[in-house]
Amino acid sequence: MPFLSEIPDFTFKKPMAAMVIANSMLSAVPGVSAAGKNPKATLMTPNLDGNLILNGPDYNSEIPLSPRGCATPATITRAMFEMCSIDPVIVNAGLVNTPDFPCIDVYGKAGQDPRYNNAVENPEELYKRGITIGKHFGKYSDLLVLGESVPGGTTTALCVLRALGYSAGVSSSFIENPTNLKSEICRQTIERIKKDKVTSPFDIIKYAGDPMMPVVAGIVKGYNGQVVLSGGTQMLSVCAHIKSLGEKMPPFVTTIYVKNDKSAAIEKSALEVGATGWYVDPDFKNIGIDSLARYENGEVKEGAVLSGALWLAYMSGFSKEEIFTQIKDYMKIFRCKNSENMS
Questions:
Q1: Which of the residues 139, 288, 295, 336 has an alpha carbon 20 to 30 A from that of 262?
Q2: Sheet harboring 226-230: ordered strands across?
Q3: Kind of pairing between the strands at 226-230 and 277-280
Q4: Which PANTHER family match (predicted)?
Q5: CA distances from 207 to 210, 239, 273 (A)
Q6: Burial zone of 41 (CB within 10 Å; 0-12 exposed, 13-18 middle, 19+ buried)
Q7: What global pTM score does this model have?
Q8: Domain boundaries in the chain?
């Protein structure tokens, strides 16, 4: 397929990008998330992503890698933002570890395991705070590319989508999607929801979601320009939440790696929700960098505004060749710390 599946019919003059970061304690459950060297390490991943995207790489550090050696998407995101002269904004929706970099804080708490506890505290208040942020962003830009970093978020996405009545599947950062584990977590969560006769949109987020979801939904509500959500099934679940509130859903963009994940069936899921999805083909198999070529095998696939940053670079007039050159030049910063093939 071409680099972008579709060229949207709108223009922009003042783009901006933001990433909403949060934790769900589900990522600490062994086997749920590959967004870290081990389950406990995933609780720090949103902070690491936020710092890398905001401040760029530490020249003495290694490339942040998944357990199987796949480079974090935040590296590519930062490279694209530098290319587009974008200074991103990080929004803290609820973390285990306090950020050590500047960000907008909605003063939320980290998401809990929805099998045993309410997942999100005060989601309606988080939504209102998101609206305030969205209004602020709208004063300075006419296009907002809005992404997330929430390890374990595909599992909360599954819970929310199913709780809203959709038969959707979800993607995974693993090559082999742990569908049985996710389905069992979802089954237990839905049992709690049915037992307590939960039906309202915010109560569903309270029981089954993560803090990112109501904050992103609120930002979309408050923003008066064009929003493009960056992410796969996690952002599809946000679209479903926005729809449940009676609001207009923005389009989302994700990678072809999510599109090709049969367990996610994101095209079918988007059709069921009624959301508009666009797809980016990074073509990492031909970039000559081993830790990115692994994306072609189905590992990681998406996250940390990866698809949105690539989409924005292309929509801003940069060619695929220029995007490849920027990525390769940027990754050379880490070359002395990570031994890998780079052509």
A1: 288
A2: 104-105, 89-94, 15-22, 143-149, 226-230, 252-255, 277-280
A3: unpaired
A4: PTHR38811, UPF0284 PROTEIN SLL1500
A5: 9, 18, 20
A6: middle
A7: 0.93
A8: 15-334
Angle between helix 179-195 and 153-163 (nearest 10): 40
Beta-strand ranges (E) seen in 168-270 are 226-230, 252-255
Look over the chain and give the mean of its residue pLDDT values, rounded to a whole number.
90
Give the bridge partners for 254, in sequence order. Answer: 279
Backbone angles phi, psi at 21, to 5 degrees: -110, 145
Q: Which two tokens stand for residue 98?
A: 């306090």
Which helix (H) or strand (E) element contains residue 180?
Answer: helix 179-195
The span from the CA of 120 to the CA of 202, in Å, is: 9
| Positions of E strands within 70-213 | 89-94, 104-105, 143-149
Per-residue pLDDT, 225: 97
What is the per-residue DSSP string for 242-284?
Answer: HHHTTPPPPPEEEEHHHHT-TTT-HHHHHHHHT--EEEE---G
Distance of CA 221 to the CA centre of its chain: 18
DSSP per-residue string spanning 203-229: HHHHHH--THHHHHHHHHHH--SEEEE
Instruction: List pLDDT tens digits, range 126-184.
Output: 999 999 999 999 999 999 999 999 999 999 999 999 999 998 765 544 445 567 888 89
Region of 7 (left: φ > 0; alpha: ψ -120 to 50; beta: rest) is: beta
pLDDT tens-digit readout, 201-229: 999 999 999 999 999 999 999 999 999 99
Take residue 41 and report the two structure tokens written for it: 């390490």
Kind plus residue range of the DSSP H or E element containing 91: strand 89-94
> 229 - beta bridge partners?
146, 252
Q: At what angle do helices 212-222 and 233-244 cross, to 10 degrees?
A: 60
d(Cα 200, Cα 306) in Å, to the nearest integer? Answer: 32
Task: Domain 15-334: give its CATH architecture.
Answer: 3-Layer(aba) Sandwich (3.40)
